[in-house]
Structure formats: C-alpha cells, structure tokens
Design a protein that fits this description.
single chain; five-stranded parallel β-sheet; Rossmann fold; binds adenosine-5'-triphosphate; Helicase, Ruva Protein, domain 3
Length: about 475
C-alpha cells in the first residue's frame, strides 16, 4: 500500500511540539495532516477525505469540542477524538453528546494508547461504512456487496497480514509466522511473549486477518496504559451513572469486537482484581458492563501479549493461575532482534524506504558500513528502537548516503572499537611470549620508558601525565629496572 492509500488522520493542535509528538507516533500507519487552528482544519476537511480527526480541547478562540460539533454536522464520516488535560474534562463531558465524540484521550497521552485508539477508530469507521453500504445495497438490491467486502478484506490483509512482518530468509521469525498462521485457523486464545518492540502487536493483527474472524473487527487495548478501574470500563463498558462522570452508557471494547478479535497487550500489568473479572468474561462468554445487572453475550477471540515471563508472575502470585491457563493455551515467543541479526538489515531497509518517503527524501540510502553498524548493535528496544534510530538519522543528516556517523554514539561503539584496533607497528611492538601478566608488565615498562623519554627523565611531569604519584612512579621504575638508566 503506498503512503497515499493510508487512512488520513488530521491533527489539530496549535502547539507544534505536541503536533510533532503525535505525528511521530502515528505516521507509520496513517497519512498525517496537521492544522494549528479550526480554520486550517476546515480547509483540509473540505479538500480531503479525513478518516479521523484528533483535536486538542484548547485551541485559540474556540474549544475543541465546539469545533467537533461542526465537524459532526458537515463531515459526519470523520471519527472525532478529543485530546484534553484533566482540567478540561467537565467542558468535554458537556460537549460530548453534541459532538458525537468517539473517544477522549487524557494528557499526558501514552504513545501506544494513542496509536491503538486511532487504529480502533479507523477500524470502527471502516466497519460503519461497510454497514452503511450494506444497508444501501440491501435496499437497492446491489449485487456487488460480496465483491466489495472481499476487496476491503484484501486491503486490510495487505496492510496487516504476515507479509507485513519483514524478515530475512531463514530467520527464526519464519517459524513463528508459520506457527501463528496455523494457529490463526482455530478459535483458540494465543499468548504472545517477547520483549517490548519485537512486533507482538503486528503478529496479533496478522493472526486476526488470517483467521475465520478476519472480516470481524480487531480491537486492541494496552492494559498498561490505563488504570485498573478505567480498564474495566474500557473493556466491558459502563452504564450511565455507574460512577462520577459516567454521563452516558458506554459500549466496551469487547462488545465492539463482537464477531472478531480482542488483543490485550501487556496483560501481565493487570491487577489480580481485574484478572478475576476478565476470567469470568472468558469463561462465561458474557460480560456485565460496570453498573449494569444485565449480562451481554459476547463472541470474541482473545489474543494477549506481555513482555514478562508470565509463569514467573504466576509463581510470584502477581498473575492468577486460572487466567494464565485460560489465555496461555498456545504460546508464541517473539525472538528479540539481537537473536535474529539477519533480520536487522532487511527491516532497516524497509523502514528507511518508508521514513525517507515520509520525509520527502526518497533517495536516501545506507552505506554498507552503516548497515554493518546497525547489524552489530544489540537493539535492547528492538524494532521500535531501530525505527526511531533510522528516523533520527534521516532527519539529522543532509547526506543522501547514511553513514555510521549519522547514528547515535551508542551505536557507533562497533565503529569506535574498529578504530581502536592496534595498527601494524603497534602490533609489531606487542610482546609475543609469556603469560598475560608477563606481557602486560612488558607493555607497562614500554609505556613508562616512552613517557620518561618524552619528559627527558622528569619524574614529576611523567607521573602527572600517567596520573601516578612520584613515589608510585619511582616504585614502578624500580620494578622494571628503569631507575638504573
Ligand atoms: N518484522 C517487522 N517488520 C517491520 N516492522 C516491524 C516488525 N516488527 C515490528 N515492527 C514495527 O515495530 C514497532 C513495534 O512493534 P509492535 O508494537 O508490534 O511491538 P510490541 O512487541 O507489540 O511492542 P510492545 O510490547 O511495546 O507493545 C511497530 O511500529 C511495528 O510496526
């Protein structure tokens, strides 16, 4: 899919820094437009089809929610999300009904949560548009419905399928993807384990789009991003009046995912109290929204992920054993990037193409040394860190060819090590015989001789250069027989 085909997200915020932060979080999956005022946003909306608008609640001269009321009337297909500080919440709650807001996100927002919310919003819109078309086609008897649904599905599969998981031939990821593709066919829960940034979410999406539920929704929640009480309401919904601020009934993610898949990321971060509630929903196949007495049946497949070793969490009493067995029936391990070093170069090339395109510099490429430098690094933050490093290098370098110098110093230790390799004359002067201690003594004596000679035997200056006391230097000279000279 070319960047032009990505769903369009419009960011409305008068602060350039927060616009930039949002852009960085979202720009791999969406085409981003930005506006600093309602006027600029209106211009975009009249010219472009916008899938989601993310609007700061505080804008010069107007409240975000008020502007979104207008968006609802004029561009009803655009999903509306407000970003707000805690202090704004009263304003928003009053405006929420009139503006038909899909979600409000509290500041400071968490990148993964923001990304997940926007992805879910786009999916909800696609589904809604599908339903509207379906209604229309049923009324008019149009026979194209099946073909169109198949086309939409193909598009989703192209963006989120297993091919999206870039890997080198023979990579350990081949095995993981093959196993995941098999598991995708059966309606079983799957637990994905792996360090942060290894691609667990990507794998979960691929499983969904290869499963019999592929034409249903894929809905995800990052369990680490919101507090426990909110998590329950996010996932299972709430009734109006269930708690302070619950002005409306709220449909939870499980209900939105009916017929599809729920992906619970960072499930290891949930509290035992929440785990009991989740277990009940999974066992009974029905949920009770917060504040409701009526049970609602739900048909979802649950995929979960964590960077923790969940078995250890069970042993430590932090994760309920019964829930563990419910979700961990089949477990997939995402290898860390350092365990699949051959993937680094292919993923880096893929990311570079994307980033360079986005930044309007399609001609940028890696030198072979830059690729070796990337491949030699351990990537504790995995592919997320690799992406950030490449984006930083492209943004900071004016060169068409990216060299190791374009990367952060922590990556260039490989390069520093190679620069520090002893030269031929140095190698020639190294002692070739004896134990390590004997050879080190010989080198130490050589260093002392050289420094003393340079300072014409002046012990005070030689000791200062070597960070030794005069007494210490004299002792060493005695030891190596240098004071006789
Ligand atoms: N094999 C891959 N090829 C291309 N991009 C990848 C690959 N794996 C991961 N990515 C990208 O790396 C980033 C991190 O991946 P993802 O969010 O799936 O990781 P995660 O393991 O779920 O991380 P976390 O545990 O922090 O949520 C995403 O932008 C994703 O698109």
């Amino acid at each position: 899919m070319s960047p032009d085909d990505l769903p369009v997200v419009l960011l409305v915020d008068d602060e350039v820094r927060s616009q930039d932060a949002m852009r960085r979080t979202l720009d791999e999956d969406f085409r981003i437009l930005t506006a600093s005022s309602a006027d600029e946003a209106r211009e975009w909306l009249t010219r472009q089809e916008v899938a989601v608008i993310l609007c700061d609640q505080r804008m010069p001269g107007q409240m975000g929610v008020d502007f979104l009321k207008e968006v609802r009337e004029r561009w009803p297909d655009t999903v509306r999300i407000v970003i707000s500080g805690y202090t704004d919440s009263e304003d928003i709650i009053t405006g929420i009904n009139e503006a038909g807001i899909y979600q409000y996100i509290l500041k400071p927002w968490v990148p993964d949560h923001l990304l997940a919310t926007v992805r879910t919003a786009v999916e909800a819109r696609t589904l809604q548009q599908g339903l509207s078309r379906l209604e229309l086609e049923l009324r008019t008897g149009a026979p194209l419905l099946k073909a169109r649904r198949a086309q939409r599905l193909n598009e989703a599969q192209a963006v989120f399928g297993f091919e999206r998981i870039i890997r080198a031939p023979g990579s350990p990821m081949e095995g993981v993807c093959a196993m995941a593709a098999r598991l995708a066919r059966y309606d079983l829960p799957v637990l994905v384990l792996g360090e942060s940034g290894t691609g667990k979410e990507l794998l979960a999406r691929a499983i969904h789009y290869a499963s019999p539920r592929q034409s249903g929704p894929f809905v995800m929640e990052n369990c680490a991003a919101i507090p426990d009480t909110l998590l329950e309401s996010e996932l299972f919904g709430h009734k109006r009046g269930a708690f302070t601020g619950a002005y409306e009934d709220h449909i939870g993610l499980f209900q939105r995912a009916h017929g599809g898949t729920v992906f619970l990321d960072e499930i290891g971060e949930t509290s035992p109290a929440f785990q009991v509630k989740l277990l009940r929903v999974l066992q009974e196949g029905e949920l009770r929204p917060v504040g409701s007495t009526r049970a609602v049946p739900v048909d979802v497949r649950v995929l979960a992920a964590t960077h923790r070793t969940l078995e250890d969490e069970v042993k430590a009493g932090r994760f309920r054993e019964d829930l563990y067995y419910r979700i961990a029936g089949t477990t997939l391990h995402m290898p860390a990037l350092r365990e699949r070093a051959d993937d680094i170069a292919v993923i880096a090339q893929h990311v570079l193409r994307h980033v360079a395109q986005e930044l309007g510099r399609p001609e940028v490429h890696f030198t072979p040394e830059a690729l070796s430098c990337l491949s030699a690094y351990a990537w504790p933050g995995n592919i997320r860190e690799l992406r950030n490093e490449i984006a930083r290098a492209v943004a900071l370098s004016d060169d068409v060819a990216l060299r190791p110098q374009a990367f952060s110093p922590r990556l260039r230790c490989g390069e520093a090590a190679s620069l520090a390799k002893p030269s031929a004359p140095e190698l020639a002067s190294l002692p070739r015989k004896g134990t390590l201690a004997e050879r080190l003594d010989a080198v130490e004596a050589m260093v002392l001789r050289e420094v003393l000679a340079r300072h014409q035997g002046n012990k005070t200056r030689a000791a200062a250069e070597l960070d030794l006391s005069r007494v210490g230097l004299r002792a060493k000279m005695q030891r190596f027989g240098l004071d006789e000279a």
